[in-house]
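Here is an idea for our session: we take a single protein and study its fold together. Start from the sequence, derive the backbone structure tokens from it, and show both lines together. Once you have written the record down, we can walk along the chain together:
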Amino acid sequence: MEDKPDKLLWKDEYMTGVTEIDDQHKILVHALNEASDKLSGNFQIATMERIVQDLLSYAIYHFEEEETLMEKFDYENSSNEDYKKHLNQHRSFSTKVVEVHKGLKVGTPVPASELLDFLNQWLINHILNTDKKFGEHILDKQN
């Protein structure tokens, strides 16, 4: 039996100040905590497949929402380097999760703890180092 990663606790420091982004981040934190519960102990590979597919689907939705806001608030022209970095992080995350999903389909799953650690760390680092900058940009444009 694998060790279950610690649950993610939502902290005020994760707030970007943009309600729709923060609400979606809270949903992602909740989904990762549910995934951790479902992937602790014995579980079927089909369970991991569903979780990975669901997380990927929601992450893609979330990324599309953020990218719509980027366009709306002219993030590309205002902060081109941060914009490109942000998009690259979205794409690399999606690529990694698709690789995990493909591995599951062909019978080579990653350990659940490794997957959950990656997802948890990626989300928190992305929020703190990338989304917060974007949130500041939106708030500046709104004022």
Remarks:
- The CA atoms of residues 28 and 58 lie 8 Å apart.
- Helices lie at 19-38, 45-72, 75-78, 80-105, 112-142.
